[in-house]
Amino acid sequence: MPARRPGRRLAPSLLSADFADLAQAIRAAESGGADALHLDVMDGHFVPNISFGPALVRAVRRRTALPLDIHLMITDPGRYAGAFREAGGDTLVFHVEATADPVATVRELRATGAAVGAAIRPDTPYGAVGPLAASLDQILVMSVHPGFSGQRFLPEVLPKLREARRHLDELGSAADLSIDGGITPETAGAAAAAGATFFVCGNSAFVGGVVAENLARLRAAIDEGGPRALR
Ligand code: DX5
Ligand code: ZN
User: Residue 138: beta bridge partners?
Assistant: First the structure.
């Protein structure tokens, strides 16, 4: 298994895997050196797509010891946090746009015993999550409009990613700075250069069925921290 990079982690999103053969996808991600698995929960309300719920998280949990990063693209995340934690989620990431009281939501998610992350859509300013930063284990900056995998990376989020990096550094926070959406060997370097530490990869991890090769290419791009030309 390739060596893990301390500090920078790669999390394949199972949304891009073959749902009828998830066990194989999980094994491929593990043997390709994935650091975590990212699970995209969509409710058809907060986002215009429906994916899966706690039952699938539980099934994945039985198959792997990798950390499970649960991206809750759902309305009223606090209501379901316990179920996703109980199913085996290690980190619960909610959207600040999905709740009227993000501080209370952090508290609710934290009460489950999970690590807690907060996500922002591409058009949400960093200021919507910044005040929570000190109480979070992860900030997730979306680089596509949430709902679907395989979309094109939006380079206009890079200044916001840099702003998040600066703020976390100022706070002395070791929280993960996650980038999610359109991460490929062409875009991962720019995200790394902007300060991301946690790279979600859907299509680019599973495309062609050569997961280990795909992850190796992504890691190389992240390590290189380029091309900065993207922005
Ligand atoms: C989009 C999801 C992403 C998506 C990533 O709503 O949050 O995690 O699965 O897929 P790619 O990497 O293909 O954009
Ligand atoms: Zn996601």
Answer: 117, 176
Q: Is 71 exposed, middle or buried (0-12, 13-18, 19+ CB in 10 A)?
A: buried
Q: Which atom of ligand 1 lies closest to the CA of 150?
A: 13
- Has 137 been annotated as catalytic? no
Express each pLDDT in 114-165 by its tens digit: 999 999 999 999 999 999 999 999 999 999 999 999 999 999 999 999 999 9
Quote the strand ranges of the chain, DSSP E: 9-12, 37-42, 68-73, 91-95, 115-120, 138-142, 176-180, 198-201
Residue 180 C-alpha to ligand 1 middle, in angstroms? 6
Q: What are phi and psi of 59, to 5 degrees?
A: -65, -40
Question: What whole-number distance in Å separates Cα of residue 62 and Cα of residue 70?
Answer: 15
Helices and strands per DSSP (H, E), number in the chain: 8, 8
**Cα dist. 113→52, 91, 93, 116, 168 in Å?**
22, 9, 13, 9, 23
18 in active site: no
Ligand 1 in reach of 202 Cβ (< 6 A)? yes
- List, for residues 35-70, the tens digit of each pLDDT value: 999 999 999 999 999 999 999 999 999 999 999 999
Polymer length in residues for the chain: 231
From 35, 40, 43, 69, active-site residue: 40
Atom 6, ligand 1: residue with shortest CA distance: 146
- Which residue's entry shows tokens 């720019």? 190
